Amino acid sequence: MSVEILRGTLLAQLQNETWDFDPARGWRHGMDYLGISQANMQILQQAYANDGIACRLVYRMGGNASLDVDDSTMSYTIDTWQILGNEESRDGLSHPGLAYALAGFDVGKVIAYMRKALAEDKCSTDAFATGQPLNGTPAAAVRFYDLQTRGSTDYRHGQYVLRHTTNAPNRWGVNVADFGIDQIYTSGQLLTEAQNSAAWIYPLPGRLAYKIGAIPTPYYRANYLWGWLKSASIETTGSNNRVDIATEYCLDQWSTDYNYPY
């Protein structure tokens, strides 16, 4: 009976090492090991598996083993940016044009009277007649009231949303998405954060920065701030042991009463 003799060390020996870079996937570090101890190679594989690193163990004839490691968890993030246009329907009596037309009046009280008259199914002639609470309000209020009686109770409101997605290794730590949640950014503050080359591998592109800077500002409303409300991030595990971290900044006139530091 022949006796198999294995020469070498029981420790896994690194045979090849490769470094690949792709701007869409980041860095990939490949390592190929060969050894005469299948048990030790299995221990090495388990160590990589515990770190969330892809690896492939092959048992070979003669008691040898090989391990192919594909480490895509390198400290490299990939940033993508989108400006989305959302549209929603809003209550017609909340239109900024009505509030603007009622400058000098108690806007909340006038709108409350309008809602009461609508609930009583009054036409505009009766609702704005002499002696009625709405008498003497601007003609624009009558037009808004007529829209309600004709069934045009809502208006379309366009809204911009800036969405940023970071594709990061699953062992990544702190991210810009973790700060400023539920805070309102002015456009200047948003651009300062989004164009910070120290915070992103790929900061906000110039074209998108120009678009944000060119969005017109609506008329001033007391106790409201025209700005970008930062959302909590949505984080999703993806391929190659990486995580997608998505954050949205929504542009609107936001009540400053809701904008407080934690």
Class derived from helix and strand content: alpha+beta
| Cα-based radius of gyration, to the nearest Å | 31 Å
Which range best describes the helical content: under 10%, 10-25%, 25-40%, 40-55%, 55-70% or over 70%? Answer: 10-25%
- Total domains, how many? 3
| H/E element sequence | EEHEEEHHHHEEHHEEE
Note the overall shape.
Answer: rod-shaped
Strand proportion: 25-35%
Average pLDDT over all residues: 86
Low-confidence stretches: none
Number of strands: 10
N-end to C-end Cα span: 77 Å
The biggest beta sheet is recorded as: 6 strands, antiparallel
Per DSSP, the total helix count is 7
Please sum up the structure shown.
The chain is of the alpha+beta class and 262 residues long. It has seven helices and ten strands.
Describe the protein in words.
It is a single chain. Helix content is about 25%, strand content about 35%. The chain is an alpha+beta fold. It folds into three domains: about 15-70, Roll (Endonuclease I-creI); about 80-90 and about 155-260, no CATH class; about 90-155, no CATH class. Strands 5, 6, 7, 8, 9 and 10 form a six-stranded antiparallel beta sheet that branches. The protein has a four-stranded antiparallel beta sheet with strand order 1-2-4-3, with helices on one face.
